[in-house]
Amino acid sequence: MGEVITLSMIAFALGMDAFSTSLGIGMRSIRLRQILYMGAVVGGFHVLLPFFGMMAGRFVTDTFGAIALMIGGLLLIIAGGQMILAFFQEGDEMRSVPSGWQLLLFSLTVSLDSFSVGLTLGIYGAGALLALLLFGGIAACLTWSGLLIGKKAGKWLGAYSEALGGCILLAFGLKLLFF
Known about the structure:
Blueprint: H1 2-26, H2 32-56, H3 63-88, H4 101-124, H5 128-157, H6 161-178
Helix pairs in contact: 1-4, 1-5, 1-6, 2-4, 2-5, 3-4, 3-6
């Protein structure tokens, strides 16, 4: 039972970046089907990356964790900057939520830290199946929650919701890089 609680707490911490970035994305016009799909893809990445991390756990140095956070921070800053720039562009066209390669990039970005945790879990021999199921399930639920809350907030904020969402992504990326 202690292992379940510990792994759940780790999974929750890993999923919080998916939650906070999903708040910003949810502020765009997004359908429930897209919300369901995005949460499933993020959850899948939160299973795959720790799995690969566990497999590579004995071969990667401690410095990889810092590199993964830097890459994730830079990708979030780029995504946030693009959203802010899109707000200032002319036109009332419907701006889209991440799909295709953008969704894969988003999922990879919010899941990079789970790779380094997988490295550690691989070294210490934690229950792989339990850890992977908890990581994926909790990340998916947090992503769905962030998107749904963002969707409600986006209705209140109107046209400014995309700029606010971009600021959230930008701030989180800066936090990963500098704090």
